[in-house]
Design goal:
With 316 residues, this protein is an alpha/beta fold. Helices cover 34% and strands 16% of the residues.
């Protein structure tokens, strides 16, 4: 089957680490509208990699909140099945990890958090730390000594100097030199949990996802995911990144702060009113009025959404 005849497939990939907030719903609505406007199908996957923060009751709540707003999905997670939960896909990630390891791309990193801060340089544009590669060339004797001292390694992938370029569906042309701008990133944590970058890339590839819509805070992850996807033998999807919702003090909304979480919103408003507010905030309609998601499909375009973050002062 050629790439042209593959169905358009987008995805919701929320992390069930707490109740969704308004910013999560904003991104979910735009992801849903993007794929519906193209006549595609939507997949739901639960990104519950972190065993300390993700709980089954949050997973059920997440699905219920999406349904409440009117954001349906065609395949993926279903109640009573954990097939599309990342916490149950460890064997699949181990297989992907093994493939990269067999190519000689993976190495153990014994650095402590303190050592990482001391030995890494912040990226000029966003302040993210770029790993120096200090463990990349450790000898067998040095590794053995670190193991004997009780250090458990994380596992990193050695990235090349290669420049990755792509055109984001909303933010336009992007480029990044992997070694300089992101450095060797972690594939598996020291506690054995596979890292987000590996899991999300392998899952999108295996699940046939070819449209990824998410917050622009993940834009800088995209080049390494494109490179990793090619290393794993998949065709990278098209990416569209969306503006973030911020509070009046400029802080982006987050689960940690319980900013306008969906539990509170469901007590205060109807799904149609909330959809209308989100659509107005996105620039899709001229004023906040009650609408259903399907009412917005014909009107959707990325040109209307734009790139600027939105400040949310109050909803109702």
């Amino acid at each position: 089957m050629s790439h042209d005849t593959k169905p358009i497939r987008g995805r919701f990939a929320p992390s069930p680490s707490g109740r969704m907030h308004l910013g999560n719903l904003f991104a979910a609505l735009l992801a849903w509208l993007d794929v519906r406007s193209l006549g595609g199908e939507m997949l739901l996957r639960m990104e519950d990699l972190d065993p300390d923060r993700c709980k089954p009751e949050y997973t059920l709540q997440l699905a219920d909140d999406l349904r409440w707003l009117g954001l349906d999905w065609d395949l993926g997670w279903q109640e009573g099945s954990d097939e599309y939960c990342q916490s149950r896909r460890t064997d699949f990630y181990a297989e992907a990890f093994g493939k990269l390891e067999a190519e000689g791309l993976v190495y153990p990193c014994y650095c402590s958090r303190k050592e990482l801060l001391a030995a890494s340089a912040p990226h000029a544009s966003d302040g993210a730390r770029v790993y120096s590669g200090r463990c990349r060339h450790l000898s067998a004797q040095e590794k053995a000594a670190l193991e004997q001292s009780g250090r458990k390694p994380a596992w990193r992938i050695a990235v090349p100097e290669e420049e990755i370029t792509f055109v984001d569906g909303n933010f336009g042309p992007q480029s990044e030199v992997l070694r300089r701008d992101c450095g060797d990133f972690i594939l598996r944590r020291s506690d054995g949990v596979y890292a987000y970058q590996l899991a999300v890339t392998a899952d999108d590839g295996a699940m046939g996802v070819n449209r990824v819509v998410r917050g622009w805070d993940l834009l800088s992850s995209t080049p390494r995911q494109i490179w990793l996807m090619e290393k794993l033998g998949y065709e990278p999807p098209a990416y569209c990144h969306v503006p973030l919702l911020c509070s009046p003090d400029g802080r982006r909304l987050s689960k940690r702060d319980r900013d306008l979480d969906v539990g509170i919103l469901r007590q205060q408003t109807t799904p149609e009113q909330l959809t209308g507010f989100l659509a107005y905030t996105a620039g899709l309609i001229d004023r906040p009025e009650a609408v259903k998601p399907y009412d917005l499909v014909k009107e959707f375009s990325w040109a209307k959404v734009g790139r600027a973050d939105r400040v949310v002062e109050e909803i109702f």
